[in-house]
Amino acid sequence: MSSVPLAAPDPTLSSFGRDPWWLIGGKVLAIFVFLVLTVLLSMWVERRVIGRMQLRVGPNRAGPFGLLQGLADGIKLALKEDIVPRGVDKVVFVLAPVISATPAFIAFSIIPFGPTVSIFGHQTPLQGTDLPVAVLLVLAMASIGAYGIVLAGWASMSPYSLLGGLRSAAQIISYEIAMGLSFVAVFLFAGTMSTTGIVNAQADRWFAVMLLPSFLIYVITMMGESNRIPFDLPEGEGELVGGFHTEYSSLKFAMFFLAEYINLATLSALCTTLFLGGWRAPAPISTVWPGANEGWWPVLWFLAKLWLFIFFFIWLRGSLPRVRYDQLMKLGWKILMPVSLGWIMLVATIRALRNEGHDMTQVAIWSAAAIGAVLLLSIVWDVMRQDKGGGETAADSGRGAVPRQAEGSFPVPPLDAPHYHGVRRGADVTAHKEVASGSH
Known about the structure:
- This protein has helices at 21-53, 69-79, 90-107, 134-155, 159-190, 195-201, 207-210, 212-225, 237-240, 250-275, 283-288, 297-319, 325-355, 360-390, 418-437; strands at 114-119, 122-126.
- It is mainly α.
- It has a two-stranded antiparallel sheet.
- A hairpin with a 2-residue loop joins strand 1 (114-119) and strand 2.
- Helix 4 packs antiparallel against helix 5 (159-190) and helix 5 packs antiparallel against helix 8 (212-225).
- The radius of gyration is 27 Å and the shape is globular.
- One of its GO terms (biological process) is aerobic respiration.
């Protein structure tokens, strides 16, 4: 008989809940340390990459190649004076950063790093824990984290902070719905909401290939969920000074900073788990090397995919400008949600027809024809609307008419209209009369 030990089977839901207390504590500590180190390294990579994109150096003083710059920034924030403005709701003001940062750590506990391995003689999955509805836990934690941002804006008693909090609430509602809809197709194909089961269902083919529209919708919504450029409206410096954290300093501001970068890692890890096969090796490597998905090697594939998405976030920040708020809402409510609903209906129909034994070739052809017809009708509708709105009537061409706004343009008040100049002149005459008569 062969003396080579058999590889441990892929983990399932029944693999959890059997670890001793010291192993569970070790996993929690490992996840915490991993997230903190990922935040420090993400800050360094972001500054170096954007520095190269903008033809400048980036951090190069604290440590070799500036590697300790994130640690230096953390120490600086911890030692700065903690300023609490007058008039704020102190209890909510202090709790808001905690509410924002804590769920970011919890959400990462259901992310699988690898298969079942042996740790000090115990067979255990490389994952904190798993649940039958594990993916919904991530959505729940994202919603709770949004409370921290909204409460921070309200408790600061500042108009800039309040506007930032309100923007964040509207943005998260808009994009979290579309994000949840993008998960439905994954659940239909995997047959489970467990992250372990979803990774096991991608043993042959990644869902990013099978469910490409869901993958693209999630990539867009995770940018809106992370409150980063081009969707960083809640902290838009040009309009809101700093947004919801304008009045925060020292460790409280650092916790918001920490939550943002942990959410960056969580969203990237969730995308890797749901659409890129999780810890499984890419097709060429897994085909050539049978042991690529065994032992500790899958951790390497998982980290490579994770950092690929983090680099994608950084690249977008250095490439795209901030969008307008009306464009942000239009993208979420008028484009992403209808497309998500239509795609889910199509996927559910195909799955039902497949279960009934219909020919999938004909189903694919009819589905492609239906999608092409819908796209063609939408293009024709847009062209007809533009032609209808582009004509100028005789009344519009008269003197004193308000100029028509172009389709999709930002509404600008017609300050150059003669009517407004007349109103202004009348106001000036009234003001001069009041000054002359001595009235106030």
